[in-house]
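Changelog excerpt

This revision adds worked examples to the README so contributors can see how folded entries look when concatenated. The first example is reproduced verbatim below.
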Amino acid sequence: MPSNLEINRREREGVSILDLKGRLIVGEPAGKIREAINGEVTWGRTRVVLNLEHVDYIDSTGLGSMVICYTSLQKSGGTLKLLKLNKRNIELLLLTKLSTIFEIFTDEQDAVNSFFPEREIKRFDILNFVQQQEES
């Protein structure tokens, strides 16, 4: 399985959306995500959503990179939100308690809307997810 990570940037209502594809793991992929976020900060774009729909695997270094990205955006007055995680990656965030740090969304419009306080949004229901896992 290739370890390369593709990152495609697009913008929606002034929010940067980084579509990730591949594996977010130690080595080049972990560095690539940090470079992408540093680029956003350099250009003054501090509202970022990571779309993880096509990321099938995240290791501890990948998680660490996400935390570093979150912190650097926060220092710049922005924030990083996560979109469309698969079941395994959600479980990983729960296990590491990072689900308490990252805002997680299943719908892209909700993720974008979350940057606008006046808009109504539907957040990912972690409690509901956990209960469903226990039942299955």
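The second example, added in the same revision:
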Amino acid sequence: MKNVFRRTTALLLVFVICFSFGACRKKGEVQPDKPKADTIVITDMMGREVEVPADTKNTTVASTYGVVTPFLSTLQIPDRVLAANFKNKQFFRLCEDPIINTGNIGTTQTLDSEALAALAPDVYICKISDQEKIDIAARLGIPSVTLSAEIPEEVFAAYEMLGKLLGCEDRAKEIVDYLKGELADIDALAETIPDEDKVTAICMGSLLSRVAGEDMLQTMMIERVGGKSVVKGIVGEEERYWADCGVEKIFELNPDYIFVTSSAVLDYSMDDFYTDSSWSGMTAVKNRDVYQIPAKLDSWDMPGPAFILGMYYMMHCMYPDVCTAEMLQTEVDDYYSFFYGKTFTGEEIGYEF
């Protein structure tokens, strides 16, 4: 009887000690929540750790952020995209991509919570500044991941994150390797340009008073291909956003080349540079070196993989002996063959050089 009593007492003591130890751990330190067995954790582009379904091969997604759409399309998982936004749907029609048949849950500015709830995707994808949309999705029990693609390194990181989220790591790696290879080729070409031959350039936005600041994608593109940016110290009110510096400041900067974005609707026409006498004294205008970055249906200067074509285009305009028209056409055809499985004429998607 005593032995039974001792064993029972010992077991109780062990239980008390273990309970006390566990209680002390809870009180002394916060233990991170472990993901459920049917989820995994990915780190999004705000650095947030987000629990998402572990069955990544079947994960469905929805987004209101147009920048995300080319990523989802080129990762070749259109059957799992429940909603998307498009800069130009006609391009994806030309690609014969089923992604054009997806639903809609709002715009870049607004999220339709009822439509999101009805579609019930496994994950909602938005840009890093969309805290309000993240909160709306959270109230519906839908995890959100954020994405940014303003510089090449972010484009690589976005593909890697989406590859993990959607179970297509191999395709994501293939794309990242392709883009890194193209950047290495561009760097090699740029190194052949003597310093004394380098020209100055600027990229203008949707208004004649608006330019890409020093922290924007378009400025990085100019500098990476051997151009000299003239916007040092000029930034937008928001990080990586267009800077409204005024026409007089642009006259003062007087670049050799002016590039105009195709990623936004312009409040002016390209002819305005040549018909408005106030622009006539600028070097770029006098030499007729004002160019709108292609392409009308697939912008080459919007955040995303097509920035690589925008860089080749800028290099061709500024240094046609370094990047010839034939080289540029080859790069364009290779790009669309790799990403979309077909090529397009300039007439089809809106480019010429």
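Reviewer comment on example two: The chain has two domains: 39-168, 190-349. Confidence is low (pLDDT under 50) at residues 1-32.
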